[in-house]
C-alpha cells in the first residue's frame, strides 16, 4: 500500500491533527484516502456500549469516511488512557498484533493512499515488548515525525530520527505542529535550523495551532485549506509514491 506512518516525539505533539490535515487535503484533491488509528486508548462508550476514541472520530471525519467504515480505521479501542500495552492489561484484553498488521494491510486495499497514526512515540509499547517502531518496520511505510517548537524539541526530534534510522525505518520528513508565526523567535527558528541540520531531514511544514480545530470535538473546519497552506502536500504525496529524494 502507498501511504505514510505518522509518529511523533511525544504523546502531545499532535499526531491526530496532522494525520487529519493530510487526509483532508488529499480528500479535497479527489484522492481516495484512509486515515487509520489501529490502536487507540482513552475510549468512551457510546449509546450501544461500544468504545470509541476521539482520535478515530476525528480521522473518520477528516478523511470523509462513513461510520460503517470505523472498523477499517480502528481495530483496537481501549478505555484506560494509557499506552495500549498497559491499557490492555488493565482491561484484561489480549492484543493480537498479527491481526492488527493484517487489518492495516486489508484497509490499505480499500484506499489509494493510507495514513497510519501511531500512539505516543516510537518506543511506546503496543503489546508486551512490541512497540510502535515494530509496527512501523513491519508496515514499511515512510514515516513523518511530528514535533512542536518547544525548548527540548531539538533533542527529542534528533533522538526520534536516530532511532528510526537504527530500526531501518525511512523517514520522509518532519512537521512542526502548534506553530505560532506571530510569536516565533530565535527559539522556534533555531529549532528548525538544528533539527534539519542534525537529522539531515526536511521540515515539510509548520502547522498552526487553530482553536477552531479540535480533536475532542471533532471540529475540522478549514482543515484541508490549512494543510495546503502550511504543509508541503506535494512532497508528502511524492514520498507516498516513492518519488521524494
Any overview of this molecule?
By secondary structure, the protein is of the alpha/beta class. It has a single domain, classed as 3-Layer(aba) Sandwich (Rossmann fold). It has helices at residues 15-28, 54-62, 70-73, 84-91, 97-108, 132-139, 153-166, 186-199, 223-230, 233-240, and strands spanning 3-8, 33-36, 39-40, 44-45, 51-52, 76-77, 113-117, 125-127, 130-131, 143-147, 171-179, 203-208, 213-214, 219-220. α1 (15-28) runs parallel beside α2 and α7 packs parallel to α8 (186-199).
Write the layout of secondary structure elements.
Elements: E1 3-8, H1 15-28, E2 33-36, E3 39-40, E4 44-45, E5 51-52, H2 54-62, H3 70-73, E6 76-77, H4 84-91, H5 97-108, E7 113-117, E8 125-127, E9 130-131, H6 132-139, E10 143-147, H7 153-166, E11 171-179, H8 186-199, E12 203-208, E13 213-214, E14 219-220, H9 223-230, H10 233-240
Parallel strand pairs: 1-7, 1-10, 2-7, 3-6, 10-11, 11-12
Antiparallel strand pairs: 4-5, 8-9, 13-14
Helix pairs in contact: 1-2, 1-9, 7-8
Pfam family, one: AAA_26
Binding site for ATP: 12-17, 55, 117-120, 177-178, 208-210
Subcellular location: Cytoplasm
